[in-house]
Amino acid sequence: MDDEQTRLRFEALMLPLMNDAYTLARWLMKNQEDAEDMVQESYMRAFRFFPSFQGTNGRGWLLQIVRNTCYTALESRKLKQKEAPLEEEPEELEDPAPLPFVSLDKKATIKTVREAIEALPADFREVIVLREVEGLSYKEIAEVSGVAIGTVMSRLARARHHLSLSLLERKESGQL
Amino acid sequence: MTCQECHDFIDAYIDNELDVAASILVKQHLRDCAQCRPLLESRKALRSLLSNPQLHFEAPESLRGRIQSALPVAPLPAIRREKMRSINPWLFVPLGLAAAFAILLGLVSINQNVMLGRSDISPLVEEVISSHVRSLLATHLLDVPSSDQHTVKPWFEGKLRFSPTVHDFTDHGFRLIGGRLDYVKDREVAALVYQRNKHAINLFTWPSESAREAAPQSFVKDGNNVLHWAHAGFEYWAVSDVNQEDLRAFADLEIKGI
User: What is the CATH number of the domain that holds A151?
Assistant: First the structure.
C-alpha cells in the first residue's frame, strides 16, 4: 500500500495549497492559461520529489517548485523567441534612498494595483507577491527564491519603493 | 539611529522581522524624526492597498481534476483486476479506508443475495449499489467534475437520449460535485454525484417506463443505504453510506426540486 499511501498523503498535503500555487504562478506568468499549466507541471514535479520532502513547510516547498517551474518556462521561451527579454532586469541601484516620500492614499482601484504589480520587474514582483499576497516570512521567501535573507530585505525595500512610485505615477496620470 | 539606518530597517520593522532591540530603536526614531514618519505612512498605505483579497487568484475548478488525473496511477495491490484511480479529494481518505476495509472483510461481493421481499426490484438495488461501489473504488467517480448544475446538465445532453434534471443543494448540505455516465439495467443512465460531509451520494436517474409516481422506498445492504423513487417521469436511485435520514432528506430536496 506504500505507493497508494504516498499518493494519498501527497494529495492531502498538497492539493489544499492549489490556490496559493496558482496565485504565485498567475502573478509570475501574468496569464491564466500559462498559470494553469505551470501549476499542473509543478504538481507533477512535486509528486516526483515528494519522497524527499521531509519538512514541515509544505507550502514553502510547493511554492519553491512553482517558482522554479515558472522561471524555467519563461527562460526557455525567451531563448526560443530570441526576443528582447520578457522582463526588464531590475536596475542595479546601490541605494534606493533617498526615497521621495510617496504619499499614497488607499483609493487606488484594484485594477490599478494589479497593473502596477504586473509592471514590476520579475524579481520585485516575486518578492512582493510572496510577502504581501502569500504572506511568507523573510526566511520562507529566502528559501523559495533561493537567496539570502539579507537579499530578501533589500529586494523587498526596493520593490516597495518601485511599486509606490509606480502607483504614484498612475495617480498623477489620473488612473488612481 | 540615523535616518539612513531607519530607511534600511523600516521594511523589516513593519514586517515584524526585527529583533526586539532593533525594533525599539526604529520605533523611537520614527517617533522623534518628522522626516522619516511619512515613509512609514507610505509603507502602511501600500500595505493596505496590497492587502486586498482580490490580489489572490482562485484556481479554476477543473485544474484539480486535471492534476489528479495526471498524477501517476498507483495500483492497489489488494485488487488486481481494477486499478485505483483518483477520486474526489474530499472523499478519498474516508472512502479509501472504507474501501480497503470492505475489501478486507470481503464485503464487496455483489452476488450476495439480499432479502428485499420484492424480487423485481432487488436486482436493481444490487446493480445500483455495485455501480456506486465501483464508482468510488475502482473506475471513476466523475466524468464531469463541477459543482455547477449549468455545467453538469449540458454535459449529459450530448451523451444521453434524455436530459436529467440537475440541482445543487449545497445550501442544504448536499453539494453537487459532478456527474458521469453509468450503466444500469444495460442502459445508459445519468449518475449525479453529491457530497454530504465526507460521503459521496450517487444519484442514478433515467426516464421511467411508466408514468407512475413512486414514493421513496429504502433498502439497506452492506452498509449502503439505497432510496428509490419515481417522480415527474424519471426513476431515481440514490445510493450512499450516509445515514437513512440524510438520504431521505436528500430525496425530499430532489423531489421538491429546490
Answer: 1.10.10.10
Q: Are strands B187-196 and B199-207 parallel, antiparallel or unpaired?
A: antiparallel
Tens digits of per-residue pLDDT, B148-197?
A: 888 888 888 878 888 898 999 999 999 998 888 888 877 889 999 998 88
Q: Are residues A17 and A64 in the same domain?
A: yes
Q: Is A170 on the interface with B (CB under 8 A)?
A: no
Q: What is the ipTM, given to two decimal places?
A: 0.84
Structural domain boundaries enclosing A53: 2-81
- Among residues B150, B161, B152, B193, the alpha carbon closest in space to that of B175 is found at B193
What pLDDT score does B105 carry?
52
A54 is a domain residue: yes
Provide the CATH number for the domain around residue A40.
1.10.1740.10
Looking at the complex, report in whole angstroms how far the Cα of residue A82 sits from the nearest Cα belonging to chain B.
Answer: 31
Would A104 be classed as within a structural domain?
A: no
- Over its C-alpha atoms, chain B yields an Rg (Å, rounded) of 28
The tally of domains found in chain A comes to: 2
Q: Which residues of B touch A99 (CB under 8 A)?
A: 7, 39, 42
Identify the segments of chain A with pLDDT beneath 70: 1-2, 80-107, 174-176
Asked if B205 and B190 count as a contact pair (C-beta separation under 8 A), the reply is: yes
Q: Does any CB of chain B come closer than 8 Å to the CB of residue A159?
A: no
Cα–Cα distances in angstroms (integers) from residue B222 to residues A39, B19, B79, B98, B119, in the given order: 40, 61, 19, 12, 18
The answer to whether B57 contacts A102, with C-beta atoms less than 8 Å apart, is no
**CA pair distance A130, B7, nearest whole angstrom:** 21
Same domain membership, residue A131 and residue A68: no
Residue A61 burial (CB count, 10 A): 23
The grid coordinates of residue B63 equal: 485544474
- Is A20 within the bounds of a domain? yes
CA nearest to A128 within chain B? B50
